[in-house]
């Protein structure tokens, strides 16, 4: 069962403005990465369902995080069907994210009052997802569907929208400022925040420092 309710999840996404996105088959690496992000100020983290036995890793991480990172809201990404969403909800996922919008997932999450943020690439998809009860919609792949200008133009007619963007997001000032000023609720960031060489070298301090830096750019852009 989720430790954080829907309001807490969406509020944390908005307040921090950034959701790291990560998967690794090694449990200890996952713990170190999550811990590094937490030390850097991250409070919402998306573990992606991208490998064999990923749910088993998540089951361990959710229990570990409750003790070692008590304020961290841990959710799951790359969920494309309702059975998988149900599996992760049973393990305690605080939110579900997908690369696409599957209307069968929405009622599963709504029944538990857990946010479902589906991937959308058009105004129609965003509107349909909202009609299904999705309080947050993910623009994906954000760089390909139009970048910050797409977000800005969507928010003109659908000004109530809470948009998360993933894809073409990097932890530098110019990039983050453009997304934030366009009006996103938050950004999702993966490979640019976790370079393969950094993970291989187990340079966890780099990740902490980069999170602090990125969150600082977000605060600056909002002011």
UniProtKB/TrEMBL annotation:
Domain of life according to the entry: Bacteria
EC number(s)? Answer: 4.1.2.14
* Segments passing through the bilayer: none
Q: What class of enzyme is it?
A: lyase
Pfam hit, one: Aldolase
Recorded GO molecular functions are:
2-dehydro-3-deoxy-phosphogluconate aldolase activity
Q: Copy the pathway line from the protein's UniProt record.
A: Carbohydrate acid metabolism
Report the Gene3D superfamilies cross-referenced here: Aldolase class I (3.20.20.70)
Q: Which UniProt keywords apply?
A: Carbohydrate metabolism, Lyase
Q: Which residues form the signal peptide?
A: none
CDD domains from the xrefs? KDPG_aldolase
Q: Which family does it belong to?
A: Belongs to the KHG/KDPG aldolase family.
Q: How does it assemble?
A: Homotrimer.
Q: What's the name of the protein?
A: KDPG and KHG aldolase
Q: What is the lineage of its organism?
A: Bacteria, Pseudomonadati, Bacteroidota, Bacteroidia, Bacteroidales
């Amino acid at each position: 069962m989720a430790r954080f309710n829907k309001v807490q999840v969406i509020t944390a996404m908005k307040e921090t403005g950034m959701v790291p996105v990560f998967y690794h088959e090694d449990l200890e690496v996952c713990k170190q990465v999550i811990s590094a992000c937490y030390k850097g100020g991250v409070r919402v983290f998306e573990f992606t369902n991208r490998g064999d036995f990923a749910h088993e890793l998540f089951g361990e991480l959710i229990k570990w995080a409750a003790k070692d990172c008590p304020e961290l809201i841990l959710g799951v990404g790359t969920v494309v069907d309702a059975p998988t969403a149900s599996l992760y909800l049973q393990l305690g996922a605080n939110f579900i994210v997908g690369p696409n919008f599957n209307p069968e997932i929405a009622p599963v999450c709504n029944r538990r009052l857990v946010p479902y943020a589906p991937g959308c690439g058009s105004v129609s998809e965003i509107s349909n997802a909202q009609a299904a009860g999705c309080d947050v919609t993910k623009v994906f792949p954000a760089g390909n569907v139009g970048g910050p200008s797409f977000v800005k133009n969507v928010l003109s007619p659908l000004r109530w929208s809470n948009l998360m963007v993933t894809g073409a997001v990097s932890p530098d000032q110019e990039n983050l400022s453009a997304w934030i000023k366009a009006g996103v609720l938050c950004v999702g960031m993966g490979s640019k925040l976790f370079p393969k060489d950094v993970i291989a070298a187990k340079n966890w301090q780099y990740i902490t420092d980069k999170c602090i830096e990125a969150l600082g750019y977000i605060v600056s852009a909002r002011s």
